[in-house]
Write a structure and sequence with these properties.
Blueprint lengths: L2 H11 L4 E4 L6 H10 L3 E4 L3 H15 L3 E6 H18 L3 E7 L2 H5 L19 E4 L6 H13 L6 E6 H5 L25 H13 L3 E5 L7 H11 L2 E4 L7 E2 L8 E4 L4 H4 L4 E5 L20 E6 L13 E4 L2 H13 L5 H28 L7 H11 L5 E5 L4 H7 L7 E3 L9 H11 L5 E6 H4 L5 H7 L5 E6 L4 H11 L18 H7 L3 E4 L3 H14 L3 E6 L6
Parallel strand pairs: 1-2, 1-3, 3-4, 4-6, 5-6, 7-8, 7-11, 8-10, 11-12, 12-13, 14-15, 14-16, 16-17, 17-19, 18-19
Antiparallel strand pairs: 9-15
Helix pairs in contact: 1-2, 1-6, 3-4, 3-15, 8-11, 9-11, 13-14, 13-20
């Protein structure tokens, strides 16, 4: 057995059944080992960033590590920004690279970068380059372990070409690989901690629960606690929200944190669950605690507690278990005199929110070009149960949350890393992992062309994603930043770097094998999505939309 064969055997020992990649000549031994093994699906991408984002989406949907193989230093560098997204969102992606052989590295030859792992150490849990052929399998196992151990996140491993080719000096033994077959976890928060949180919740005049990414799997428990206590529920700010599944039709849900100032007026306690409080977009857009409010923070990663704001009480634990424990404590507590007043206050806030959204939608109906609010509202109507809705609408993301809804038994995915081009390949990776679930992507026209090559992989691999392109003709976020700089609501002048004229999105999509349709209205867009889902095909629906005002 050579190093490459040991690499593949290690993947098999870990239960990895899909390997994403964009190879070069140095990966020849690995590609041959994968062919000879025949048990691992190889998914080819047309750009390294696309391959990494596919592995990210696959990991999110499957719950298993997403493994990707790239080519030397240059492939690694092309994939780095998407691995940074995985780091920000806590996704277990293992990026590997077949590096140049050690002779070339010692001579600083073609594609040489002797300390390649140093580029990724600042944002990976483990970054290493194998030193001997005998250690390749152990190094890969350590990378997989690092990525999947809590808190989860990406890992990196480079393997020089000569080590992939070299015969092992000792027999390969999967049972001797570094691994953790069982883990004795720390106990969930003790009764006294839960009782203390419950006591403060019940005593608060106007508490607000903020749900972050780590709480996405605990939506039902959060909804039950909100109903029991009379809690207003808001989503974490978009800059800190990579997954959300709370039912937005729930009467306790009141939008984003800070979206409606009235929700936080008089708030005396913030219960933050599973989020990084607070994660600023800029110094001007920095969420803060309401005046006089105290903070209780629940997160599985103790490093997040007290990191940015004075925290009255921090609780380390998985959101699902903690929320269930809080629910038991609150149910066993004596009468809740404040609950009725809270529910009344929330009813008024919900009524005002619903009325405002209805007015916005009525004003947006039947506009030309179509309004994003109208498109999102119509799409929500046709999305089937269990849909994974991937959002890379960028400037329109707030409208997606305000006028759309979380699909029944579904979720909304986003990336908080800031590297564009994540959405389409992540959607493809998700569909490859979960072919039983509908996957719909909402993407801006600018973001689409960071990674439109992913459509080719979707077609070749029969991963029928539906892509809705909100086409506003440019990089609107950049345009709005310039207008904010100039303190004007709208500047009709053309600014450098903001316009995208002359792109035929449908022709580009069709060239990769996808179906394509142009929808002029929100109703046409919804109909096209519904048809694409029923026919189970890769489809791109382009919708010209009006530019969203500040």
């Amino acid at each position: 057995m050579n190093g490459a064969e040991a690499f593949v055997a290690t993947l098999r020992a870990w239960g990895v059944d899909t390997f994403f990649g964009l190879p070069g000549s140095t990966e020849a031994p690995l590609l041959e080992a994968l062919r000879a093994d025949g048990g691992i699906r190889y998914v080819l991408a047309l750009h390294e960033g696309v391959a990494v984002a596919m592995a990210d989406g696959y990991a999110r949907a499957s719950g298993k590590p997403g493994v990707v193989g790239l080519h030397t230093s240059v492939g690694t560098m092309n994939g780095m920004s998407q691995l940074f997204n995985s780091a920000r969102d806590g996704v277990p992606v293992v990026m590997t690279a077949g590096h140049k052989d050690r002779f070339v590295l010692s001579e600083d030859g073609f594609c040489a970068f002797p300390d390649l792992p140093s580029l990724l150490r600042p944002f990976t849990k483990s970054s290493w380059q194998s030193l001997t052929a005998e250690e390749v399998a152990a190094d890969l196992s350590r990378a997989l372990l690092a990525a999947t151990a809590a808190p989860r996140g990406p890992a990196y491993l480079a393997v020089p070409e000569d080590l992939l080719e070299a015969q092992l000096g000792t027999p390969f033994d999967a049972q001797s690989l570094p691994s953790l077959r069982s883990l004795s976890r720390a106990p969930e928060p003790v009764h006294d901690d839960l009782a203390a949180v419950a006591e403060r919740l019940l005593a608060a005049r106007q508490p607000v629960m903020v749900l972050g990414t780590e709480a996405a799997s605990a939506a039902r428990a959060a909804a039950e606690l909100a109903a029991e206590v009379g809690l207003a529920v808001v989503a974490a700010e978009l800059t800190d929200l990579a997954a959300f599944s709370y039912p937005t039709a729930d009467p306790h849900y009141l939008g984003f944190y800070g979206e409606d100032p009235a929700v936080l007026e008089g708030c005396d306690l913030v219960l933050a669950v599973g989020g990084r409080v607070f994660f600023p977009f800029s110094n001007r857009l920095r969420p803060r605690l309401p005046p006089g409010a105290t903070l209780i923070h629940i997160h599985p990663n103790p490093a997040q507690l007290g990191r940015r704001l004075p925290t009255d009480l921090g609780v380390v634990g998985e959101p699902q278990a903690v929320l269930e424990g809080l629910l038991r404590e609150c149910r066993s507590a004596p009468g809740q005199a404040a609950r009725e007043a809270r529910e009344l206050s929330m009813a008024h806030l919900r009524e005002a929110r619903t009325a405002a959204i209805s007015q916005e939608l009525a004003a947006a109906r039947d506009g030309q070009p179509a309004a994003v609010a109208d498109v999102v509202s119509e799409l929500s109507r046709v999305m089937p149960k269990g849909t994974i809705l991937v959002d890379e609408a960028v400037r329109a993301s707030r409208t997606v949350f305000r006028h759309g809804r979380v699909p029944e038994a579904g979720e909304i995915w986003r990336s908080t890393g800031g590297s564009l081009g994540w959405g389409l390949p992540a959607a493809v990776g998700a569909k490859l992992a979960r072919p039983d679930r509908p996957v719909v992507l909402l993407v801006g026209d600018g973001s689409l062309h960071f990674s439109i090559q992913a459509l080719w992989t979707a077609c070749v691999q029969d991963a029928p994603v539906v892509v809705v392109v909100l086409d506003n003709g440019g990089y609107l976020a950049v345009k709005r930043a310039i207008e904010n700089l100039l303190s004007v609501p709208r500047d009709p002048r053309l600014h450098p770097g903001t316009e995208l004229p002359g792109i035929d999105h449908l022709a580009a999509a069709r060239s990769y094998g996808a179906h394509g349709v142009l929808a002029h209205t929100a109703q046409e867009a919804a109909g096209a999505v519904e048809e694409a889902l029923s026919k189970n095909r890769v489809e791109v629906v382009v919708v010209p939309v009006a530019q969203i005002r500040p």
